[in-house]
Specification:
- By secondary structure, this protein is of the alpha+beta class.
- About 35% of the residues lie in helices and about 20% in strands.
- A five-stranded mixed β-sheet has the order 3-2-1-5-8, covered by helices on one side. A five-stranded mixed β-sheet has the order 4-10-9-6-7. It has a two-stranded antiparallel ribbon with strand order 11-12.
- Helix 1 runs antiparallel to helix 2 and helix 5 packs across helix 6.
- It is elongated and about 95 Å long.
- The N and C termini lie far apart (about 60 Å).
- The structure holds dinuclear copper ion (CUA).
Length: about 325
């Protein structure tokens, strides 16, 4: 109904309709009660106006039916809002299992996108239509915020952390991408476009570039350049933990706690190796803080993700 209104963004993702539905419901509830309350104020103001100069109003004590009504009706409405809102929130926070992962690095003042097969883009992101896309995001400097109104997704992009959002575009086109967190002088210029393409066009676009090879292969090279492979070996004879098959697993730590090996854990282990020591290993790894950029960290993470468990843990 609002699709043609320039005030309202296009609906171009699977979540857009659900987000709009709850938005319009809340808007309708607000309008209804605003009109009801304003109307009653005017009506009662007129009806119970002072008619005689020294008139005194009649005092009314309680009205059970009225009180139960104005308690239960709003309670019911707010429960509907809560349950409905929570279901949309959960759907937005839980990406499907099979997503197309793309890394995003925000910096003053641009968006850098890194596709897994090596393709890099700045302020422009190409994705195929109909495919669930997950953005794994971090910042090189201050807090930014990715916002694509047409997809109804928005999330802070934080230095030193990975946040993620997902969306499934439903129609090809070009959609605005904004930074929605004030991040310095040229914050307003930190904009871009998401280009949603037909799958075949997307394949053609992908094969048009990527001279540097995949993200994981760049990570593999970096892994060797930084001599990580001298300690992290596939045969469990190394001085560092075996990384094959590590991603997504639960790791037992020296401290007795355990941690799931996700992007944040791998990042922390590269930058602050002493923070979480794997049980059975010594804290001998040097820090790589300042030696690897955010983008190189992503390459290393993607390399670790690509290391599947080898047969009996032996290879090389
Ligand atoms: Cu980046 Cu505002």
């Amino acid at each position: 109904m609002w699709a043609g209104t320039p005030l309202f963004p296009e609906r171009a993702s699977t979540m857009a309709g659900r987000v709009d539905a709850i938005y319009f419901f809340l808007l309708a509830v607000s309008i209804f009660f605003s009109l009801l309350i304003a109307g009653l104020i005017v009506y009662f103001g007129a009806k119970y106006r002072r008619r005689r100069e020294h008139g005194v109003g009649r005092v009314v004590h309680g009205g059970s039916l009225l009180e139960i009504g104005w308690t239960l009706i709003p309670l019911f409405i707010t429960i509907v809002c809560f349950v409905w809102g929570a279901s949309v929130f959960f759907a937005m926070s839980r990406p499907p299992d099979d997503t197309l992962n793309i890394y995003v690095v925000g910096k003053q003042w641009m968006w850098k996108f890194q596709h897994l097969d090596g393709e890099r883009e700045i302020n422009e992101l190409h994705v195929p239509v109909g495919r669930a896309v997950k953005l794994i995001m971090t910042s090189e400097d201050v807090i930014h915020d990715v916002f694509v109104p047409a997809f109804r997704v928005k999330a802070d992009v934080l230095p030193g952390r990975y946040t993620s959002i997902w969306f499934q575009p439903t129609k090809p086109g070009r959609y605005h991408l904004f930074c929605a967190e004030y991040c310095g002088t040229r914050h307003s210029g930190m904009i871009g476009e998401v280009v949603v393409m037909d799958p075949s066009e997307y394949q053609a676009w992908l094969s048009g570039g990527a001279p540097e090879g995949s993200l994981a292969s760049a990570g593999e090279k970096l892994f060797a350049d930084l001599a990580c492979n001298t300690c992290h070996r596939a045969d469990s004879q190394g001085r560092g933990p075996v990384l094959q098959g590590l991603f997504g697993k639960t790791v037992a730590l020296q401290s007795g706690e355990s941690v799931v090996a996700d992007e944040a854990y791998i990042r922390e282990s590269i930058l602050m190796p002493a923070a979480k020591i794997t049980a059975g290993y010594q804290p001998i790894m040097p820090t790589f803080q300042g030696l690897v950029t955010e983008e190189q960290l992503l390459q290393l993470i993607e390399y670790v993700k690509s290391l599947h468990p080898t047969e009996l843990g032996i290879r090389n």
